[in-house]
Amino acid sequence: MKFLRAALMAGAACLATEAALAADAGITPVIKGPVAEVAIYHVADPENYPAMMAAVMEEVGEMPGLRNGVHMRSLKDPTLFADVNLWDSLEEAVAAAKQVETEDRFKPFMNSIKEIKLFGHFVPGQDGSALRKFLADGAVIEMAVYSVKDPAVQEGPRQSVYNALQKTDAFFGGLPLSPAHEGEPYIDFIAWSSEKEGMATAESMMAMDEHKAFFANAEKMSMFEFFEIYDMDGFE
Description:
This is Quinol monooxygenase YgiN. It comes from Aestuariispira insulae. Keywords: Signal. It contains seven helices and eight strands. It has helices at residues 2-25, 49-60, 90-102, 107-111, 155-165, 195-206, 212-217, and strands at residues 35-43, 66-74, 80-87, 113-124, 140-148, 171-179, 186-192, 218-233. The protein has an eight-stranded antiparallel β-barrel with strand order 1-3-2-8-5-7-6-4, surrounded by five helices. Strand 2 (66-74) and strand 3 (80-87) form a beta hairpin. Helix 1 (2-25) packs antiparallel against helix 3. The two termini are 33 Å apart.
């Protein structure tokens, strides 16, 4: 998988660069604490893929640093799947992904993936326990992947939107994900009561003057998709 290999190389290069800069300056690297690993991809055999993923996650669960995660499939495209896994650190996430990509025991799993739409590591806007909010019965998950015009003005208006969403009936929970490295996209990972209610709530928010700064700052939407959760890891 050339895309995954390139992503892993980029992650490793960033880690090496940050470590070198930190050593020279005598400071702690910027990227620290938990990270969210996000993968969105098409598979060759969607009917049998969930069982294959479950077997792989039993192995990955033994690797250092995995906290929990959710595994999803698209409501509209049966071949499109997505995973959001929370790790204690970027180093541990990259190390685990490299094992999955290179070790023979994972080859059948890797060969089952036809196309990777997105693979990367992101800074979660909340503690990993926030993923529990996504476990509500019947939750529909929105994955919005986008770039912004000005990262400097993103976080304030974005948090305002999330605060407002908490007051709506359709919103079950959300996990804002910010890029770990410059040039990567932002992701809004939101659980709704239904796709219809989620779309209606989003349209209502877009019409409000107090949230125009957030929506005006969005530059390009590279993915907007609704998913359902088919499995979870790391939850009691």
